[in-house]
Write a structure and sequence with these properties.
With about 120 residues, this protein is α+β, with helices and mostly antiparallel strands. About 25% of the residues lie in helices and about 35% in strands.
Length: about 120
């Protein structure tokens, strides 16, 4: 249980110690797949690294509180990789939208992991 608590605390530290860059605002098209429209602001956390050698991906929802209460783990068969994507300030509906968005490809599947409230 302590590891679960520390995981979320470490993730919060990374997010709060670094800037968030939104490079794909809500309503914009995916740069490679024009039929995919972002329903939540999407970007990355500056000064971090992920599997694709870019910053850790982040979805920023419309809640005024910016709590980190979920992540999404993805498996991408085209890139042959896996990544986590942080969800911050997302409503329950936005979490479902993001989850569906990431599962809408035959090459990528995603798993939503919600933070347990203790």
């Amino acid at each position: 249980m302590e590891y679960n608590i520390l995981f979320w605390e470490y993730l919060e530290k990374i997010v709060h110690d670094n800037d968030i860059v939104i490079d794909r605002p809500k309503g914009t098209k995916h740069p490679k797949y024009s039929n995919m429209i972002y329903t939540v602001d999407y970007g990355y956390i500056k000064n971090t690294n992920s599997m694709d050698n870019s910053g850790i991906d982040i979805f920023v929802g419309s809640n005024t509180h910016k709590n980190i209460d979920a992540i999404i783990c993805t498996i991408d068969l085209q890139k042959n990789d896996s990544e986590i994507k942080v969800l911050i300030g997302c409503t329950e509906d936005e979490k479902i939208e993001v989850h569906n968005f990431l599962n809408d490809s035959e090459f990528m599947k995603a798993l939503l992991i919600k933070r347990q409230v203790i």
